[in-house]
Structures are given as C-alpha cells and as structure tokens.
Design goal:
7-stranded mixed β-sheet, alpha/beta, 4-stranded antiparallel β-sheet, 2,4-diaminobutyrate decarboxylase, single chain
Length: about 550
C-alpha cells in the first residue's frame, strides 16, 4: 500500500457521468444535501462560524487565479465549500440577525428551488420556458391585483394578452426601479411628427425636439441608491435625480416637492418622474403617496412607487392604510426576496396600464418575435431563471392570510422593541417604527439629560462622541457573533440635523423573539462598559458634565 491519493480524471466518460450520475448516498455532497433537507436551521447553526473573521484572512482561501488543469472530485469541492465558504458566510436566517432586510425562509423554498434549478428554464422566451411563462404572467397579475385591485374580468382580459404585459420580473429592486424609469423616460419623449421617439433617436435629440434643457427624477432624500444608478444608466446623469427634503418623520415634504417641480419647470427641465417610497431602507418610512400622485398628475410626470420593502403591507387589513395612494402609481416595485420571503435574486415591477410596457418593447428575429407571448420583449434582462415559481408557491402556500400574519407580527414586534428602548434609561429611540424598521442608539440617561439642556455646539460635541460609541458597539457586537444590528447615519431634527450614527433594526424574521431583543440590548449595554471604550465614554461624560454642571455617580 503506497497510500497514494486517488485523483479525478478528465475523460469523455467522466464528463458524461458528471452530467448524469448523482453522487453516492454516503458522499460528502449527499450528506450535506441530507443535512440541509432534514434540518436546515441546525445545518446553518453548526457550520457557519459566528465569530467575525477578517476578510483579508478569508481572501487567502480564494487567492489562486489559475483555473486547474486537472479535475477534482465533487466531494473534495463540497468539503472545501463547507470549510472555507459556508463556515465564513453570514447567518442571515438567524433570529438574532436583525440588521438587514434578509430573513429566514419558509422550509419549502429549498426543495422547490431544486426543481427550478433542475428544469433550468429561461424565461426570455416561451421556447425555453413553456408553462413558466404563463405562470410568470399569473404572478405579475396577482401582485398587480394586490396593488391596483381590479376585478377578475380585467385580469382575464390582460393577464395573458400576448401584446401586453402587466409588469416585468427582474433580478431585484434595483433592476425593477430601472425598468420603471426606463418606461417613464421613453413615454416622456414619444414619437411625434418627424421625431421617431427617444428609444430610437436618443436623449439629446429628444430634449432638442421637445425644447427641454434637461430631464429630472424627483425623490425624497431617503430614496434608495438604485435610483441614482437608474439616472446614470438612462443617460440623465446622477445630478438629474433631484432630492427633496423630508419632514421630521423622514417622509417627503409635499410643499417642497411642488416647489422643486415649479423651479424645474421654469428652467425648462422635463419632470420625467416622481418617485414615492413605501418603506425607506433606513427608517421604514412611507411617503404621503396620495398627495404625491396629485403632484405628479399636476406636472404630467410618471408616478413611480418604490415599494420594494413595504409593498407586502397591502396583505394586512390592519396596516394596508399605510400604503394609501399606491394604487394611483403608474408603476410599483416589489422585492420578492424581502417580505415575500423568497430566496435572494428576484424582484418585479407592475404597471397600472398594461400598455405602458410597450414603451420599451424590443424584438429579435431569432428569439423574441412580434406577437409572441414572450415576456422577454419588455424586460431589461434577457435570460432569466424561473423565480416566479417560488413567488407563486409562496403566494399559494402562505396565501394572503399567512402574509398578513407575518406583516402584522413584524410591525407589532417593532413597536414592542421601540417600547423596550424608550423604557430603558440608557437607550434613545431615534426613529419610531412606521412599518417594522426602527433606529436607536446607546445614550446613557445623564447624556440624554445633557442633550436636552445643551446648546447647539454642546450638542454637536456630545453627538460626535456618541457617534464613536455607537460605531464601536455595533462593530464589536457584530464581531462577537451573538447578534447583529446594522448602523446608518441620520440627521434628526431634534439635533439641528447634525449627522448621528444610529443602530438600525429590521424585524421581519418571524423567529425573532422578545427575549432575543432583550438580549441584544443587554449585550450592547455591557459592551459600552468594556475597557476598549472607556476613554471614549469618559469623554462623553465630560461633555455631559460640562452641560449639567459637574460629575455625578454614573456607572457601576
């Protein structure tokens, strides 16, 4: 026995086997598959390392740029992925991972995803998707009905009409927003007289023909960064995304919006689109959509609502009123991999008028022909997986009542956590939850007293120190691996709009409990008392003492 390691071989027979013969039941890959299928939560808990590892160390596992000449065994690669990739991934399904818009998934999404991958359909064309195309049309129709509430006869007429589309399936909210604004741009500069339309002749000729000095998209200062990308990609330039001031509750100010529109009009700038937000990324705030729709109508602008986060609130009879006015939008974005609880990588946009999508219609003789039922004719992306199957499954298995429960619980949990924060003397609630997102920070009782009495310069010094404290606590808590909250920067009106770093919490995971939330606050309080933060805490209290008139006993 030489003990020589058996090596994989590249051959015609080996390639055929890789495509046709599954791994043996006792192989590494098969065991991983069985573990995931039998106990997903346990698999993730066991194999993902909770303690943060420096990314530079992780990069060493992926440092070789050469493609191997010789193959390796599937089980060898599976073990590598387990040890080097899975172990250093993020446990987004953990009930204590409450910092981002990612949650646990319903158990059925995993086996159904296998079916989707095995079929490997391409939704650009019915020739490569067949039944997946009408399913995708149905999903778009179901979400369209959730938003616009048309009757059954409407959907019998439009849902499967090969000449029209109720929306577009996309890889996420970014592409969905881009698609909506692509439609808005082309519709803003249609063919007329000698002009063949922006889609044919371009933005420069469109502006010249219609006598405009530019085109603009308006959105609140809390607008998602994907809208800046859209302005860039669409040729308008990032400066053409015009930010509008928000009120103390992080909602767009209608008077400021109208003033901006009037100003742009005077400058001969075409108001191409106005974007409302139904659930801002940072605070979960919902713009006054009803009033925004009126302004959009007044200035002849396309009204788009980015409901990537908050759209599923429409499932809740208790909270759907928060979305009032969304049915007046020309287009609405949903992110299915957020509160529709579908795996990462799918969003969609729906259009109020089924004829709108024709503004971006395109054809190719070899694949997307006029009159076909292909949805690829009105999508930015060409080849797309059949992710609509997973949305369809969620809508059927969870149904309206199931999603309603999930939405209601998330909002209720956020309100409970807000009460826990306001009831704790050493924490400050910065933004109350309108949906299920809130922000707060560690701010000892005496510091809160000082802030209430401080002048603007004193408050600025205290907030600068609190920013460093917040950053330390958030970073350290993440590194310890017990829990995760994110951080962002807001400009609260109560502090004269000084930039304040705050903890940001998203409560969409149904497995997150009140006890877990209590543990998170307890750990943050303990981190504030650690030696690594002592100097900064001393500085913070010195600033507070300067306002309140001398030191007092403050910490155990």
């Amino acid at each position: 026995m030489t003990g020589k390691k058996k090596s994989a071989q590249a051959s015609v027979e080996a390639m055929y086997r890789v495509f046709t013969v599954p791994e043996a039941p006792e192989s590494t890959l098969s065991r991983i598959d069985q573990n995931i299928s039998g106990n997903l939560a346990g698999f993730l808990q066991e194999h993902i390392v909770a303690v943060e590892r420096d990314l530079s160390e992780v990069e060493k596992n992926f440092a070789d740029s050469a493609i191997p000449e010789k193959p390796i065994f599937v089980s060898e690669q599976a073990q590598f992925l387990l040890d080097k990739l899975v172990a250093n991934s993020v446990h987004t399904a953990s009930p204590s991972f409450i910092g981002h818009m990612t949650s646990a998934l319903p158990y059925f999404m995993l086996p159904l995803s296998k079916i989707m991958i095995a079929l490997n359909q391409n939704l650009v064309k019915t020739e490569t998707s067949k039944a997946f195309t009408p399913m995708e049309r149905q999903v778009l129709g179901m979400i369209h009905r959730l938003v616009y509430q048309q009757d059954s006869a409407y959907y019998r007429k439009w849902m499967h009409d090969p000449r029209h589309a109720l929306g577009a399936m996309c890889s996420g909210g970014t592409v969905a927003n881009l698609t909506a604004l692509w439609v808005a741009r082309n519709r803003a500069f249609p063919a007329e007289g000698s002009f063949r339309g922006l889609h044919q002749e371009g933005l420069f000729r469109a502006l010249k023909y219609y006598g405009h000095e530019g085109a603009a998209i308006l959105v609140s200062r809390r607008g998602h960064y994907s809208l800046r990308k859209a302005a860039d990609v669409l040729g308008l330039g990032r400066d053409s995304l015009i930010p509008v001031d928000t009120d103390d509750d992080n909602r767009i100010q209608i008077d400021a919006l109208r003033d901006k529109c009037l100003d742009l009009q005077r400058q001969k700038v075409k108001i191409m689109a106005i974007c409302g937000i139904a659930g801002t990324t940072e605070t979960g705030s919902v713009d006054p959509l009803d009033a925004m729709a009126d302004v959009a109508r007044e200035f002849g602008a396309h009204f788009h609502v980015d409901a990537a986060w908050g759209g599923p609130t429409l499932f809740s009879r208790q909270h759907a009123h928060l979305m009032r006015g969304i049915d007046k939008a020309d287009s609405v974005t949903f992110d299915a991999h957020k509160q529709l609880y579908v795996p990462m990588g799918v969003g969609l946009v729906v259009f109020r008028d089924p004829t709108m999508a024709s503004a971006v219609e395109h054809h190719a003789q070899y694949i997307i022909r006029k009159g076909s039922r292909d949805l690829g004719s009105t999508t930015l992306e060409g080849s797309r997986p059949g992710m609509a199957m997973l949305i369809h499954s969620g809508l059927k298995i969870l149904a309206r009542e199931g999603y309603e429960i999930l939405i209601n619980q998330g909002i209720e949990k956020a309100r409970t956590f807000a009460e826990m924060i306001t009831g704790h003397p050493d924490f400050e609630l910065v933004t109350s939850p309108e949906l299920n997102i809130l922000t707060y920070r560690y701010c000892p009782a005496r510091v809160q007293q000082a802030l209430a009495a401080a002048d603007s310069l004193q408050a600025e010094r205290i907030n600068m120190s609190l920013n460093r404290v917040t950053k330390y606590i958030q970073k350290t808590q993440r590194e310890r691996g017990k829990a995760f909250v994110s951080r962002t920067r807001l400009e609260p009106a109560r502090y004269s709009h000084f930039p304040c770093i705050v903890f940001r919490v998203v409560l969409a995971n149904p497995l997150t409990t009140k006890e877990i939330l209590d543990d998170i606050l307890t750990e943050q309080k303990e981190l504030a008392g650690e030696p690594g933060l002592k100097d900064e805490m001393d500085i913070l209290y010195q600033h507070a003492d300067a306002v309140l008139g001398g030191p007092v006993a403050r910490r155990a």
